[in-house]
């Protein structure tokens, strides 16, 4: 069976994806239990990691564009989708936390829909949404929990 037609994500992709959630979940929860003197540092690391992951996820679309037929209209869309996430992460890092966190969770939500678009156009494997949906949910939930912590801990 061709890997693009498989329905279930490869176990290695699932394991690495779950490992990638550790900084999101631990930082989001850490903001609720960490002594106040450390919270700013925990938030800074969460935002930095979110920006790195947006860049990583954007790079996936760059790779998909490289695989696309150059004559198709899909490659330019994929290239565009590859640069928007890191740019949003970069912009978000320059914003106050109350604005940065919403930019990040909107960026991750938008990226999920870009991934679905890639699957629907045959550019990404059929199994990709089965991997991305739960990972995206946990990332966005973690960012929301972190955002709530900034409001409660004032």
Automatic annotation (TrEMBL):
<dbReference type="InterPro" id="IPR021836">
    <property type="entry name" value="DUF3429"/>
</dbReference>
<keyword id="KW-0472">Membrane</keyword>
<feature type="transmembrane region" description="Helical">
    <location>
        <begin position="46"/>
        <end position="66"/>
    </location>
</feature>
<keyword id="KW-1133">Transmembrane helix</keyword>
<feature type="transmembrane region" description="Helical">
    <location>
        <begin position="87"/>
        <end position="114"/>
    </location>
</feature>
<feature type="transmembrane region" description="Helical">
    <location>
        <begin position="12"/>
        <end position="34"/>
    </location>
</feature>
<protein>
    <recommendedName>
        <fullName>DUF3429 domain-containing protein</fullName>
    </recommendedName>
</protein>
<feature type="transmembrane region" description="Helical">
    <location>
        <begin position="134"/>
        <end position="152"/>
    </location>
</feature>
<dbReference type="Pfam" id="PF11911">
    <property type="entry name" value="DUF3429"/>
</dbReference>
<keyword id="KW-0812">Transmembrane</keyword>
């Amino acid at each position: 069976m061709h890997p693009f037609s498989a329905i279930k994500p490869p176990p290695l992709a699932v394991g690495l994806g779950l490992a990638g959630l550790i900084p999101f979940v631990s930082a989001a929860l850490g903001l609720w239990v960490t002594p106040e003197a450390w919270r700013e540092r925990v938030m800074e690391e969460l935002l930095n990691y979110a920006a790195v992951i947006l860049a990583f996820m954007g790079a996936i679309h760059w790779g998909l564009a490289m695989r696309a037929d150059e004559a198709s209209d899909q490659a330019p869309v994929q290239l565009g989708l590859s640069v928007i996430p890191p740019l949003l992460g970069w912009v978000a890092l320059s914003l106050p936390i109350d604005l940065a966190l919403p930019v990040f969770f909107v960026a991750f939500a938008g990226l999920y829909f870009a991934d679905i678009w890639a699957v629907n156009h045959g550019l990404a494997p059929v199994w990709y949404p089965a991997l991305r949906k739960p990972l995206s949910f946990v990332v966005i939930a973690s960012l929301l929990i972190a955002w709530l912590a900034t409001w409660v801990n004032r």
